[in-house]
Amino acid sequence: MKAISKAKMWFKPVVLLLFGMAMMVFSCKKDTVEVLFTGDEYQNILQYIDNDQESYSFFREIIEVGRLADALGSYNSHLGGNGYTLFLPDNDAVNRFINENYTYGSLDELLEDTVFTKELIRYHVLNVEVNAFDFANGALPDKTLSEDFLTVIFLDEGGEIVYSVNNEATVEEINIQKSTGMIHLSDKMLTPVIYTGYQWTQVNRDQGYGIYSELLKICGLEDTLNYYFLDELNRKIYNEYTLFVESDELYQANGINNIDDLIAEIGPEDSDYSHPDNKVNKFARYHVLSSSVFLDEFETAIYNTYGDLPVSEDYGLEIKFNIGTQVFDTVISGVDTLLINYLMVDQDHSNILTKTGAVHQLDQILFPFLPGRKTKEYQFYEEYQINELRYTEGSTDIRKEDLDVIELFGIDYLNYTNQASNIPGVLNNDYISMNGNFEFTYHMPQILAGAYEVSIVAHRNDRSNAVLQAYLDGNKLGSVLDLTSGSSANSDFSPAFVLGTIEFAEYSSHEIQLNTVVPGRLLLDRIVFKPVSN
Question: What was the pLDDT predicted at 11?
Fold first, then answer.
């Protein structure tokens, strides 16, 4: 008993001593951390703003009322986030915004609208850190904290490149690096995007788009172009599309002074303009691409529309649409003659940002035109969940009930993987995968009539892979695909598996299915339709 008592007496002061030493060490470490982050180079974004209240006190109040101070003063914890990018306006820029705004007469009135203020501050903050030298002439690589895209236009001012955000605010100073992200100083506060593409045309009907806005209205496209669903956080998720618009000035240059003149030009014999078979309706829907594409994202390809025909684009020094549609102009230079038989966009009135995507103004009237066939490579980006993840590195499971254009039977989810490193044979370094005994069905977008060689690019030469049978519109396509075999010693995504040749009689959508003959794994990059001679 005495031995135990002595042990307890000895143990107690030792514990207290160790505890005290630990507290001293902890205190030293804590003090060290504070010292490390007090220098200018370790400032976070909020500290940078607080250290210059004379310049940024107005925006600091907006941050506080918008409840974003904690976020800007710490590291990004938002889903998919990696640092922040803040477009920071000074007090003069905030005043300029208020003076040009009809809703708020003062900063106090703006701050009283807490709902708008919360949206306003989040609209100025990207969910990733972006260096100005990585800006694209189009949409920035990730959304803002308000779930919107910002666009950047490159302007040449006296030989110097100037960045214009949303064609609204000029970036006056770039790349102010802080510990929690990047700051770019702007000469004006940004106006949050609140309109869909359709709503933008109606709001701007008196700013030179009266005929076009009336066209969309009489064709009954309001519900289609304003459609949205609510996600799990009760946020509005709009269908994304690209709107090609024509100005009143362009119409008038072609002898079209009002909507009646446009109807007469297209087809006046049927007045039921809301019917999908109506010529005026088809003309209006032909102006809507089925995905949002900014100018820097266009490539030589065929883009599906809401109409009966697609729009073709040829990308080079200039962006040319529907080459061969008609001769709009002839340019003679010496012995050379150039036929302008294509449409282009007015770059000063394009990349207009809306809730539903990009709006581009055309330099000629876009009439329905059947372009030549081009190779189509489907990477499943029509699937909303996949498209949302395509700029985020990592691996994500997507439940079958959250899929729209893909159907799964026999398994509950597929996986989407996006890698930073190069994957041989894979476009964009991303792919989808599934495992087990399954049926995978993909509802393709519309494709032009004609003959095509069909192939898939999938991972091969691995014993854990599946053996598959492909079907097109319910009919067996090609022989069994053994993904466990390959032509090289290493597993790879190349070469592609050729399924066979098919011929489509009309421009329409189709369904391709991959069913397991022997259960296993499928890593699928894309499905390819390559035109062949009939």
Answer: 37
Contact 322, 289 (CB under 8 A): no
Whole-number average pLDDT of the chain: 86
pLDDT at 77 over 80: no
* Distance, C-alpha 281 to centroid of its chain: 27
Query: Which single residue is written with the structure tokens 């044979």?
Result: 425
Q: Tens digits of per-residue pLDDT, 434-474?
A: 999 999 999 999 898 999 999 999 998 888 999 999 999 99
pLDDT in tens, 172-219: 999 999 988 999 999 989 888 878 999 999 989 998 999 999 999 999
Looking at residue 259, what is its pLDDT?
A: 96
Domains, the chain: 42-186 (2.30.180.10), 197-361 (2.30.180.10), 376-531 (2.60.120.260)
* Segment 424-438 mean pLDDT: 94
Q: What is the DSSP string of 179-239?
A: TTEEEEEESSPPPPP---HHHHHHHTGGGT-HHHHHHHHHTT-HHHHT-EEE-TTS-EEEP
Residue 362 CA: distances (Å) to CA of 153, 251, 320: 17, 11, 11
pTM, rounded to two decimals: 0.66
Nearest to 56 by CA among 173, 151, 167: 173
| Cα–Cα distances in angstroms (integers) from residue 278 to residues 222, 264, 509, in the given order | 17, 13, 21
Q: Quick one: pLDDT band at residue 534, thresholds 50, 70, 90?
A: low
For residue 383, what are its two tokens? 């699937």
- Strand pairing category for 394-399 and 413-418: antiparallel
Residue whose entry in the numeric block shows the structure tokens 């490193």: 421
What is the distance between the terminal CA atoms of the chain, rounded to a whole angstrom?
101
Provide the CB-side half-sphere exposure for 159 (13 A, CA): 0
Tokens of 506: 């009309």
Q: How many whole angstroms separate alpha carbon 494 and alpha carbon 102?
A: 59
- What's the rounded Cα separation, in Å, for the pair 359 and 163? 19
* Contact status, residue 215 vs residue 280, Cβ threshold 8 Å: yes
